[in-house]
């Protein structure tokens, strides 16, 4: 245990096994965190004294108290992220930079835009300070849906320099509506333009019913397929102007966003709190086209999954902005107690975890792409609801009384910490190689929003649930400087071992395991509990490396089998490459 508490996500990812088996703890790797605040609560010194944080966390920029948190008072969420990282990679160096602007703003959208710039500056500052890995849990409504904004461009910039970048996918589930603007022929002077028809059939319905719980802060970002002037003034910005309105059950306008968009950015941001005075939780949304051509795609996202969309719900993607950048590695969430290490196989996705598939329609200059680019985000799922000393709420799923940190904001730092273990094992890896290792070694999961089990990648769970021990093992196998033996301790879960030129002891568990051989060893590979019905020995990479290109290994005398007691031993025939006898490969 590290400090007073250790996140249960450590065990869920088998990071504890990775540290014990391979002797890694993140030493020599620097991780930077971008979030709201670090120590506005004034209790960070307690974490250091108790061992929940190291004494040398380098805070490059702290949030000012008046702008500590986008959604309320200071919470020091960034410090909670750092606690999780320290639990998994206790040897890593830690940096922090706020992602919140200190500039005064006259509106939520203006503050959002200023914070996006501060966020991009923070990414570059962390990279300049030596971060090998950066992780964030912040999103801004002003970030473009359909174009790489200033934060996404900063992410791609530092990744091109060799920095790994992890981002929380967000907690928007599928709370998104998208459609082409559908002219209704209805004009109402209250809305200043033609209303959108939500009914794509023969009828006309100019409002969409939603449910808003009392006292929950509701905010949606609304955008459409036009370029952002703020990214490139030469693009001309948006050629059209749309507005969004919230109506109570009597049809009265209770909130609206009516920015003048022509020649500017195609974005509106609607904020509202149902304070209970409306006598109902039933409300309606309306969208109008005030000026210009009707967009072929418009979309709103409820990033905090506050509203229930009661009709015309398209259940569309909710990963957007820098989490959807080409260089980013977005992370979804599964509760630690809903993972294989805690008896649930496959892991279950948190119901709020955001879903990918948002298309990129414009390049950074504002020119429309010949074909939309749909990126694979999120890439993986990490654990959430692990313990911290101060952040979150206690869960009934554990026996202690420490608070549990939920959301993709907790999942992302877990993955960043695993990446530190991978980089320590193989410092030669670039970002795309680390990303690939995490993806290859993840345990497949199912998208709960689609029928049947989704084999392989899906836009809800990515490539599946992270497995730290498998990832570190694969990283070591790709390290040309590594001379250590490879050991697979599969436990009860699926395991992969990639063999190199030294002895590879394979200790199989009770599930589906793969033994992948890249090169021929001079020693004997000892396998414990090989189950021919479930387990696979994969020799493709080995024979490719030996130049074999045919398809009958036994007849071509590259393989033979011998009986050794109750076991069958498969052996390589090395006479084709200068040796005199068969070499044992596996039992």
Description:
- The protein is of the alpha/beta class and 587 residues long.
- The chain has 3 domains: 9-171 and 319-470, 3-Layer(aba) Sandwich (Rossmann fold); 176-309, Sandwich (Jelly Rolls); 483-586, no CATH class.
- Helix content is 18%, strand content 25%.
- It has 10 helices and 31 strands.
- The strands form 8 sheets. It has a 7-stranded parallel β-sheet with strand order 2-3-1-4-5-17-20, sandwiched between helices.
- Strand 11 and strand 12 form a beta hairpin.
- Helix 4 runs parallel beside helix 7 (408-425) and helix 8 crosses helix 9 (468-477).
- The longest helix has 21 residues, at 108-128.
- The protein is globular and about 70 Å long.
- The two termini are 37 Å apart.
- The relative contact order is 0.13.
How many distinct helices?
10
CATH class of the largest domain: Alpha Beta
Which architecture of the largest domain per CATH? 3-Layer(aba) Sandwich
Q: List the uncertain runs.
A: 484-498, 562-569, 574-587
Q: What is the CATH T-level topology of the largest domain?
A: Rossmann fold
Question: Percent helix among the residues?
Answer: 10-25%
Question: Any key phrases for this structure?
Answer:
587 residues, alpha/beta, Rossmann fold, Jelly Rolls, 3 domains, 7-stranded antiparallel beta sheet, 31 strands, disordered C terminus
